[in-house]
Write a structure and sequence with these properties.
This protein has 297 residues and is α/β, with parallel strands linked by helices. It has helices at 4-19, 30-41, 48-52, 55-68, 70-89, 111-114, 130-138, 154-160, 166-169, 195-200, 208-227, 256-264, and strands spanning 44-45, 97-101, 120-125, 127-128, 143-147, 181-187, 233-245, 248-254, 267-277, 287-296. Helix 1 crosses helix 2 (30-41) and helix 2 packs across helix 4.
Length: 297
């Protein structure tokens, strides 16, 4: 039998090779580390560049957090499912195909109910969990898992480690899908798109203002990418991110200014709060909440 310490050493190697930057992840909780390692083994990434920038590792961490925080996340996941169904019903028609961006974990997707509206569903993400891939096996020729980098910059970043040229950032390509979609949803991923690219560029020569502008451009480019499908689009995204300590709010990131033009042209379907990191999840008694909204355009 392999000891816990031995598995912990293996986990350090996996995380180091997956991040590609030669660092060792120090974990004080072996159970947490082993759980994330277990999920990591079931995650598939689009390519080596996606692993290098940490997408595979991040998906494994998300799976572990979902298990730990399932009670706090349950209202958010249900609200997301309800909003997606409302947006699907608004199309009126049945049949055809749906494209769901950010479907790598599928925790927040009402798959069975959506299959009553659409003949086929394409889940699109840069990584997929074992659970999501199993959906495609359970519903062959009805559910497809399509690996794709919606930002279009991950390969470039893996080779250059500097802010990509604007022409590349502003024009991510539409993938060739196995079916033709008539409805598109971007689910809980818009404001997450800049995170790993920005983390990758932390030690680059770019100035903080340049990195901030780059992150903003990635968000705006995704909104344009969604419109390029020329179908009804449901967008589920956070509007702000609030971090609290024991005594109150520490800081806030507000995405409303970036989204202002988009939401003025879209119909808001719902809005809710999500305790993404409940008390006990972060050190020093901190906790984190988000305001989330769903739009149909």
């Amino acid at each position: 039998m392999i000891s816990t310490q031995r598995i912990a050493s293996i986990a350090d190697i996996v995380w180091t090779s997956d991040s590609g930057i030669g660092r060792t992840i120090n974990r004080t909780d072996n159970r947490l580390m082993l759980e994330e390692l277990w999920h990591l083994l079931g995650v598939r990434a689009a390519n080596r560049a996606a692993c290098l920038l940490g997408y595979r590792r991040e998906m494994a961490a998300l799976q572990a957090r979902h298990r730990r925080c399932r009670d706090a996340w349950r209202p958010h996941l249900q609200a997301t499912k309800d909003a997606l169904l409302l947006a699907a019903q608004a199309t009126g028609d049945h049949g055809g195909a749906a494209l769901i961006v950010g479907g790598g974990s599928a925790h927040d997707l009402p798959i069975v109910e959506l299959l009553e509206h659409f003949e086929q569903i394409v889940l699109l993400d840069i990584t997929f969990t074992y659970q999501s891939r199993r959906l495609a096996k359970h519903w062959p020729n009805r559910i497809f898992c399509h690996l794709h980098d919606v930002t279009g910059i991950v390969d470039w970043l893996a080779q250059h480690r500097q802010i990509p040229p604007p022409a590349l950032v502003l024009n991510p390509t539409l993938p060739e899908l196995p079916v033709k979609q008539r409805w598109v949803a971007s689910v809980n991923c818009l404001t997450q798109l800049p995170l790993l690219p920005l983390d990758w560029l932390t030690h680059s020569a770019a100035e903080p203002k340049q990195l901030e502008a780059f992150g903003r451009t990635l968000i705006l480019a995704h909104l344009k990418w969604l419109e390029n499908w020329q179908t009804p689009v449901c967008l589920v995204t956070e509007l702000d991110d609030q971090r609290h300590d024991r005594n109150g709010q520490l800081d806030q990131t507000d995405y409303r200014p970036i989204l202002a033009d988009y939401v003025q042209q879209a119909n808001q379907l719902a809005s809710w709060n999500w305790t993404v990191n409940p008390p006990g999840e972060l050190p020093h008694g901190a906790w984190e909440s988000r305001t989330v909204a769903a739009y149909l355009k």
